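Appendix B. Raw example, untouched.
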Amino acid sequence: MKEYNVAVLGATGAVGREMLKVLEEYDIPVKKLLPLVSARSAGTTVPFRGRELLVEEARDEAFSGMDFVLGAVKSNMSRVFAPAIVKAGAVFIDNSSAFRMDPEAPLVVPEINGEDAKANKGIIANPNCSTIITLMAVGGIARLSPIKTMVAATYQAVSGAGQGGLVELEEQMMAMARGEELKCKVFPTQIAMNVIPFIGALTPNDYTDEEMKMQNEGRKILHLPELKVTCSCVRVPVMRSHSIAVTLRTERKISVEEAKEAVRSFPGCRLIEDYEGRCYPTPLDTSGQDLVWVGRIREDLTDENGLTLWCCGDQIRKGAASNAVQILQYLIR
């Protein structure tokens, strides 16, 4: 079996570390694993296949000889190193938003549009986490009839804001228990025992850029340029795994039973009809694994061609790290 040289750019962050775990779990044939970070984080180690690997500083020359580079850094760093990665002949699978809407870069969820990855010119973009989880939930239904519109509300875990989000929620909960003052650094207001209906930066249409990703990225992934999406993104006091309530309208009427069967048979999804006496998943159910769980499929009461459902998925894994590794896996297969 052919083996591949793989670099992980941003290897010490939450998504980067998860990428290392998923590469192991999926038994990707890695000949050399190169963990890379910015200068200030170099010199530490990360575990991979029973060994501690030295984390090196990311430089243009570091990508020489690499076959794949998995990106787990912010957009500005992705843009800085992308030219060197492509020049080195590696395929850059980038988790940032830097190249998602670039017409030259495929935007890929392997179960939905894996074939698009083959048309890459050295860069493949990993979609937004909520977009991945939502489109996985509706992907099987979209195969029955094109989706015309979606109305979505996301319930996003604090880990979506990085390690600092996890720390802030935990510290606020402990401070509440001790009767101490709560401190807000990552989020604009208290997140413990609260929800914040605003994620990202405001755009001219009064939606945030996080909310617009569902429409913009959904159109590209589903190959539906006329898809219309209204989305509200909400940060909730959950550690890990995002949840989304979705109402979709299809070109033709899809029955609830048809929709259930489509979800049941769609790779990467788990239909929940009776799980521990529940007809729905929760974030805790889905944390630490790659399936998107879907439940509460029912008819929309406002449109005869509409369906409403609830889905949950681990945004660090399927919403980020695992999806990137699955793209790599798709290409080598």
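End of appendix B.
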